[in-house]
Design goal:
single chain, 105 residues, mainly alpha, elongated
Length: 105
């Protein structure tokens, strides 16, 4: 739930509230945010979380463009790095899950 709320804040903060940052920072934040959403969604065993996140990635960019008071623009590249983040979250989840619980001897 916290990761989902964080995503709403990050993705829908008006442009005036977004701090300035070096070029490319936005893409890193998108990637890590969607990796977090994917990982936590898989951890919570949310059914069909990965395709739902792909839809959310696209819809969030369209909404950023359409909600004019935000003064933000939708960006196809942001949606693509969101999908990269989803893949990163899935990859991290599967790697950690394969290891299983550690046993001590």
């Amino acid at each position: 739930m916290t990761a989902a709320l964080l995503s709403v804040v990050v993705l829908f903060t008006p442009e005036s509230g977004v701090p300035t940052a070096p070029p490319g920072t936005d893409k890193v934040i998108h990637t890590l945010l969607f990796a977090l959403l994917a990982y936590t969604g898989l951890y919570a065993k949310i059914s069909r979380i990965l395709p739902l996140l792909v839809v959310y990635a696209g819809v969030s960019e369209v909404l950023q463009q359409l909600i004019t008071p935000l003064h933000r623009s939708g960006d196809v590249l942001d949606a693509l790095v969101d999908v990269l983040g989803i893949a990163l979250g899935w990859f991290t989840w599967t790697r950690i899950r394969r290891r299983g619980p550690r046993t001590t001897r």
